[in-house]
Amino acid sequence: xxxxxxxxxxxxxELDELSNYRNQFHIPKDKNGNELIYMTGNSLGLxxxxxxxxxxQELEDWANLGVEGHTEAKNPWLPYHEFLTxxxxxxxxxxxxxxxxxxxxxxxxxxxxxxxxxxxxxxxxIVIESDAFPSDKYAVESQLRxxxxxxxxxxxxxxxxxxxxxxxxxxxxDILEKHGNEVALVMIGGVNYYTGQxxxxxxxxxxxxxxxxxxxxxxxxxxxxxxxxxxxxGADFAVWCTYKYLNSGPGSLAGCFVHERHAHNKDLxxxxxxxxxxxQTRFNMRDEFDVLPGAEGWQLSNPPILSMAAIxxxxxxxxxxxxxxxxxxxxxxxxxxxxxxxxxGEDIIRIITPENPDERGCQLSIQVLNADKxxxxxxxxxxxxxxxxxxxxxxxxxAPLYNSFxxxxxxxxxxxxxxxxxxxx
Length: 425
Ligand SMILES: *Cc1c(COP(=O)(O)O)cnc(C)c1O
Description:
Elements: H1 6-15, E1 37-38, H2 51-65, H3 69-72, H4 82-92, E2 99-102, H5 105-116, E3 125-129, H6 134-146, E4 155-158, H7 169-179, E5 183-189, H8 201-210, E6 214-218, H9 230-233, E7 237-241, E8 254-258, H10 305-321, H11 323-343, E9 349-351, E10 364-368, H12 373-381, E11 384-385, E12 387-389, E13 393-396, H13 405-424
Parallel strand pairs: 1-11, 3-4, 3-5, 5-6, 6-7
Antiparallel strand pairs: 2-8, 7-8, 9-10, 10-13, 12-13
Helix pairs in contact: 1-13, 2-10, 4-10, 5-6, 7-8, 11-13
Bound molecules: pyridoxal-5'-phosphate (PLP).
């Protein structure tokens, strides 16, 4: 059977042992009630059907128990975040002591920089990738200003070479050979949000550490998308959100990783609150501050349980499937997507995401010859929900938990239709 046919896509869905998970998600529909082809799980993941029951449980316990819910709820609220730790650690390849769910992503990035960005007069610079997500750039620049440094001089950009989009490790090596002794922190997006390039975190960490720099990653586009192995990477810290591939709802809480080697270091400077304090004596309210070991020691506040319930609903699915099976499917699905796109002609379609499946997750960033936002609008009208980034990139992320081979087939088929019509016009 030819691969570029609907029948082939259908057959792949039948062979896919994870295909039934799609039924566990609400798939958005158009005005006529037809399911949309949703390719933006990299921006906001879809809602698991069981999320409502998880949140309802907490609403019910709150209604029936009031404050007693902290200890008497079916899932007591005081230790609620602990119910997420093990699954979250599995998702990002970390040990439980290294992981906590708290705050939001950019807030966690700042908290991590309070502890791991320790500039001196001569070593104060921060290396980030030139196409970093804007929030990360703003956070880094504001940390420089906060410490009294010039935010333009203090940022060193790891840039692609001319006429290229992807970053090369040799260039980071060069930067660190030349400026390593001025660099306090290397802070990179683990999977670049724009190109979809999945970096070798271990290699980057090794490079940074060799030059005496701290190394941290923003894994917003990695968590739930690729096998992260944060512990083995040796990174000092990492942060990620849970509303993208981790399907926990708009603005939901974020994850944070602090490497085990820092777990018992009470001398690290940090911002604290009562939730970073020893659980046994937290409610005595008068004690000297006694920090919790591990990532939990960076918590500030008692967390929003309703959001945590949504995260639990989602992580229970990830835990059941396992990140290995998920990424195995993802490689097939995105590989098929890439194959179909290439059928449209490599003179018209250019994929800037790395070709090597180990250097990307599910997202493909696609450039279409002479395209502008009108193309994206036509795709949207045709029921394809994708993401447009100026100047000319369409980002599509078939998420292996709920996207199918047929989704990918229809996406490319509609794109082909639109391109053919454009030619006739
Ligand atoms: C999505 C994303 C963010 C968003 O930050 P919030 O604090 O969750 O609003 C930040 N950085 C990266 C790399 C992202 O992909």
